[in-house]
Amino acid sequence: MARVLNFIDAITEALDQELGRDERVFILGEDIGLSGGVFKATHGLLDKYGEDRVLDTPLAEGIIIAAAIGSSMMGLRPVPEIQFTDFITPAMDQIVQQAAKIHYRTAGAFSCPITVRICCGGGVSGGLYHSQENAAWFVHEPGLKVVMPSTPYDAKGMLVAAIRDSSPVLFFEHKKLYRTIKGEVPEGDYTVPIGPAAVRREGKDLTIISYGFMVHVALEAAETMAQRGIEAEVIDLRTLSPIDKETILKSVRKTNKVLIVHEDKKTMGIGAEIAAIITEEAFDDLDGPVVRVTAPDIPAIPFSPPLEKYWLVNPEKVVTAIERLAAY
Amino acid sequence: MATKTTPAEAQPTTSGKPAYSRELLLGLYKMLVKCRMCDEKARILFRQSKFAGNFYSNVGQEAGEVGAAYTLREDDWVAPSHRDWTSNIIKGVPLKFCFAQLYAKATSPDKGRSSPAHMGYAPLHIITPASSIAGQLNVGTGVALGIKKLGQDSVVVCFFGDGATSIGGFHEALNFAAVHRLPVVYLCQNNLWAESVPLRLQTALTNLSDRAKAYGFPGVSVDGNDILAVYEAATAAIERARAGEGPTLIEAKTYRWYGHSEIDPAKYRSKEEVEAWKKQCPVLRFEKFLTDKKILNDDLKKKVASDITAEIDEAVEFAEASPYPKPEDAADFVWS
Fold first, then answer.
1. How much of chain B exceeds pLDDT 90, in percent?
2. Under a CB-based contact definition with an 8 Å cutoff, are residues B216 and B179 in contact?
3. Are A132 and A280 in a shared domain?
4. For residue A31, what are the domain limits?
5. Which CATH superfamily is domain B22-322 in?
6. Of residues B83, B125, B211, B260, which has the active-site annotation?
7. Nearest neighbour of A66 by CB, restricted to B109, B142, B332
8. Sign of the CA dihedral A273, A99, B176, B150?
9. Are residues A264 and A287 in the same domain?
């Protein structure tokens, strides 16, 4: 029986093993050293590797990312942490204008192999500024790879792959996964490639496309519907950019019905892009509309529990959408 | 209404330091003239529609560029702003590449990707800039962190203007460099105008180098049209950085002769202000200094100019003869 870890412990192990394997790797961010991270993702690493490799930084996201970018151009492999994605905005200039474009604007003369770990996601009473899920902002920027794993196995394997990737990677970690999702994680060195999606559940009646914590919501809804004789296929995108069109289209051609589930807001979200891809490339295979279950177009997740519940996607909302779609 | 700013009294180069060799002084002079001539040539080419986009002249500010970059080693780094294309020339980028970059030809180091304002060259450690203000200070500071982590003894010089000192990224970069005593020199070319915004609306400070006090490292303001004053301050700062003693902020007080770009007639400035500063021309001042020292004479001046003209002509010819990139090349280098 393989070893079972929490999602967050898989993250810590990936960082630990990469720091141990490659001297070019270092991690930096707010509260990652002495405190071991607000969620303890970097717990114990300062003691083990020292301040040169595990660097507590000033509370200034712009220079956290810029320090990573500049040193990555020297051949180092920095892994900066953005404590909450709600705080990523001060670093937008560095991420979008520098990291995403350095390789392109220098015709490959410089590259920017950074892995930005970003904690995101709602459902933990975090309120407006500790709950956001805004990965879609970055999917709009070619040059950035954007990933969001949903299992401990992928968390470790994809973080290792990201650190070894020569493009800048934004590695989103949904905070609700940290200690609620456990799974088998090999002790040794392995990678899960950035790019391919995973089919988490086979089904013939419709396809649910999701990522991050929402994969688990989709799976729960799929089990409910299975009891009523409707078999949903569940695709975990894992990588949001570049997106795995092949796996999406293959499933659409099999089930002919598509439901997209994401925690982020609806308008211009990742679901909109997936719907467009499907209508452009598999229109004739569709038996019904591409349906989205997402957060509403409201500025941020409100704090009061009933308000937060209104915002969040849950299995019931997904079941309702499946019922509607299955009727086609 | 235009703001009138009186430049410091016109003086020949004030440095009394005797240590400069004739070779160094002439080297600085030739580079100063080369930057001036390349820049004026680029302005003409732009006005002749030889290249597209825009051009951000460095004329008037050459002493700051040459004074700071001339002393750098090949493995040292430069993080230029949009106005510092001449830092490429000083660092040793072949002129043909600089002009191919202006022309956005396939032979330019970035294969026609960046605009004329954004020139860089990886083999000589010049970081191609982006347009966002002070971005290069932050990336340059990151490079300095990398240098320190790798145990190298190279340094980074970040060039920027007075306008860049107002944005948050300036503070983040200088503060971080101070905390880690990074090998970086921040060289502010204070030309009194951030595009059309006068310094009095940019800052309440008289000397921008005062900002260094807030970070706990040295700051010095120098006459930015006095090449030896800049050279001295920059050399000291670079030595300090190389010795692991941390950053320095240098303010070179200077003036941008032309508009923010070639499409800006700069009518917000008075003619008197511009003329007063032109009398402080860094090239003429250094020529007078060298002539007084009997290092320079008319024959040598002519030879320097004709050598540079020949070099520029060759570079322009290369740029004009070079092909444009193929349209579909636009999709290359998205991922590394």
1. 93
2. no
3. no
4. 4-184
5. Thiamin diphosphate (ThDP)-binding fold, Pyr/PP domains (3.40.50.970)
6. B260
7. B142
8. positive
9. yes
Q: Does B167 touch chain A (CB under 8 A)?
A: no
Residues A48, A54: Cα–Cα separation, whole Å: 9
Q: pLDDT tens, B125-156?
A: 999 999 999 999 999 999 999 999 999 999 99
| Domain final position from A149, A184, A219 | A184
Are A32 and A132 contained in the same domain?
Answer: yes
- Residues of chain A positioned with their CB less than 8 A from the CB of B168: 62, 90
ipTM value for the complex: 0.95
Tell me which residue in B141, B168, B332 faces A70 most closely, judged by beta carbons: B141
Domain count of the fold of chain A? 2
Task: Report CB contact under 8 Å: A97, B135.
Answer: yes
Q: Is A26 on the interface with B (CB under 8 A)?
A: yes
Give the pLDDT band (50/70/90) at residue B17. Answer: low
Shared domain check, A251 and A107: no
- Write down the pLDDT at residue B266: 96
Residue A154 lies in a domain: yes
Query: Rounded to two decimals, what is the model's pTM?
Result: 0.95
Tell me whether residues B128 and A52 touch, CB distance under 8 A: no
Contact B336 A103 (CB under 8 A): yes
Q: Write the pLDDT tens digit of every residue in B296-315.
A: 999 999 999 999 999 999 99
Asked if A70 has any chain B CB less than 8 Å from its own CB, the reply is: yes
Q: Are residues A151 and A292 located together in one domain of the fold?
A: no
Check pLDDT > 50 for residue B4: no
B168 in contact with A at a CB cutoff of 8 Å? Answer: yes
Residues A221 and A300 in one domain: yes
Q: How far away is chain A from the Cα of B68, in angstroms, using its nearest Cα?
A: 21
The predicted pLDDT at position B35 comes to 98
> Are A127 and A158 in the same domain?
yes
CA distance A120 to A133: 5
- What whole-number distance in Å separates Cα of residue A16 and Cα of residue A88? 24
Cβ neighbourhood burial of B37 (10 Å; 0-12, 13-18, 19+)? middle
Count of C-beta atoms within a 10 Å radius of residue A255? 20
Tell me if A62 is assigned to some domain.
yes
Residue-wise pLDDT tens digits, A74-123: 999 999 999 999 999 999 999 999 999 999 999 999 999 999 999 999 99
In chain B, how long is the greatest CA-to-CA distance? 57
B268: annotated active-site residue: yes
Q: From A119, A153, A184, give the residue that closes a domain.
A: A184
Confidence of residue A1 (pLDDT cuts 50, 70, 90): low
- Tell me which H or E stretch contains B143: helix B135-149
How distant, in Å, are the alpha carbons of A39, A104, B160, B176 from that of A109? 37, 9, 23, 26
B149 with A71: Cβ contact below 8 A: yes
Residue A190: inside a domain, yes or no? no
CA distances from A118 to A87, B25, B235 (A): 10, 52, 41
Q: Is residue A84 part of a domain?
A: yes
Tell me, yes or no, whether A227 and A320 share the same domain.
yes
